[in-house]
Request: fold
Amino acid sequence: MSTSICHESRLNQAFRLNLMGIYFIVLLLYSYADSPNNKRKLMNDSQYNLIAEDLLLAVEEAIEESGVDIDYEGVGGLLTLTFKNSTKIIINKQAPLHEIWIATKFNGHHFTYSDSEEIWVDKRGGDEFWQFLSNAVSIQAETEVTLSSE
Reply:
């Protein structure tokens, strides 16, 4: 009987330590979200969808205004840019993550929205969305292209 009490005591202790660990992680997550160093504010799904759809429409308009021969097709949160040399850039919404992903001929990048700066920023390199897209389009179009939301 003493071994079952000892075993039960160890299980209770392990359970309490596990709960404390979970509580600690939750505290860390909430404290980071409220930290002044965290430039990314949490947004709800509706806000994300509005901002992301505006971005995709702005890309279509910028491509149209660039004067470069680039075909584009937008369907359901996915925008495909097709170049004369048959290469593609794919820009798509990642709604569960509140991100925009760009796949180029060379690599892929994930962008998050910085509410404080009102720009999309690459998680890997810190590049601003329009700067990154202009460079990628220039490489794949084989001509200098500058895109912007204005």
